[in-house]
Amino acid sequence: MSACSRGNRSRREFLGGMLSLGAAAALVRSAGGSEADSGPSHELPKIRLGTLEVSRLILGSNPFFGFAHGNPRGTPEQMKQWYTKERMMAVLDQAAEHGITAVWTPCYENWVEIWNEYRDKGGKLKIWIGQPDRLPMEKEIEIAVKNGAKAVAIQGIRIDEKVSEGKWDVIRGWLELIKSHGLPAGMATHTATTHLEAEQRGLPVDFFHQTMYRPDDYVMEGLEESLATIEKLHKPVVAYKVLAAGRVAPSDALPCVFKRLKPKDGICLGVFPNKHDEIAEDSSLTRQLSRNTA
Question: Is the Cβ–Cβ distance between 91 and 118 less than 8 Å?
Fold first, then answer.
């Protein structure tokens, strides 16, 4: 039984299955991989977020800002110290060289300054997906729009707050504001069922940003709940917290997740490449696993 199969399973069985899939992925890389698979400038499969086409693997940004969430590979201070402006731009370029076409970040002032400078210098990565996470939300959406975001997805904590208050009308208003600017509109969540209810309510959403693990405990049961939800959603889904904030290796996590995603769905991964080339590993796995699960 695979690590991502349905049904009740013990934590030990789940972990054992995940490790088996990771070993299988390593064998695939060593036996069938090539420079063309992992080298720069090799395209990744594409998905569509509304009218926007992006690579199936999107670059996340938590490490840019020191959002470690207990990552065993680096503290918030280490991440913020390592990610100078120059290194951030270099990582964006490297991501583009490996076929990644988009980066997903909040609308913070320091990011906007870096993004605009990067674009002015002819940076290779061309698509920013804005993730407004501060209130008033309308102001944050405007920041994303005015600074070249190609899509906007409301951050999960803000969505979860309004859902808990029963204020679906507020979420609808945020999404309609994004769409009024001609941009694809998305929403995120840290729970398993919010996006199902959003579809049932007919919210004007083009894509979903679905956490894989519950950020309060990062247990395998949360992963299964999220994957089961994604299988039911009709709109495109971009999975995040795929590596449980660095607690699970890409070679273990990605085979499990891609096995359950549809071709319309993608993943978003942040990187902290202070010790090894995470971007090359993530893009190579995405490319190979997309072929294997097509």
Answer: no
User: What one-character-per-residue DSSP string does 223-274 give?
Assistant: HHHHHHHHTT--S-EEEESTTTTTTS-HHHHHHHHHTTS-TT-EEEE----S
Which amino acid is located at 90 in the chain?
A
Using alpha carbons only, give the angle 137, 143, 146 rounded to the nearest 5 degrees: 140
Burial of 135 (0-12, 13-18, 19+ CB in 10 A): exposed
Report percent pLDDT > 90 for the chain: 71
Cis, peptide link before residue 136, omega less than 30° from 0: yes
- Residue 75 phi, psi dihedral angles, 5° rounding: -85, 165
Sign of CA dihedral 215, 288, 55, 224: negative
- CB of 99 within 8 A of CB of 55? yes
Query: Cα–Cα distance between 183 and 139 in angstroms, integer?
Result: 16
CA 184 to CA 128: how far, in whole Å? 12
Return the higher-pLDDT residue of 79 and 266.
Answer: 266
**How far apart (Å, rounded) are the C-alpha atoms in residues 49 and 185?**
8
Beta bridge partners of 58: 268
- Identify the pLDDT of residue 235: 97
What's the rounded Cα separation, in Å, for the pair 220 and 107? 31
- What is the C-alpha separation between 119 and 197, in angstroms, rounded? 38
> Is the domain defined by 53-292 classed in CATH 3.20.20.70?
yes
Extents of the domains making up the chain: 53-292
Going through the chain in order, the beta strands assigned E by DSSP cover: 46-49, 52-55, 57-59, 102-105, 127-130, 151-154, 185-189, 207-211, 237-240, 266-269
pLDDT (tens digit, 9 = 90+) per residue, 58-95? 999 889 987 876 676 768 899 899 999 999 999 999 99
Helix H or strand E segment including 154: strand 151-154
Residues 97 and 261 sit within 8 Å (Cβ to Cβ): no
E strand or H helix at 144, and its extent? helix 137-146
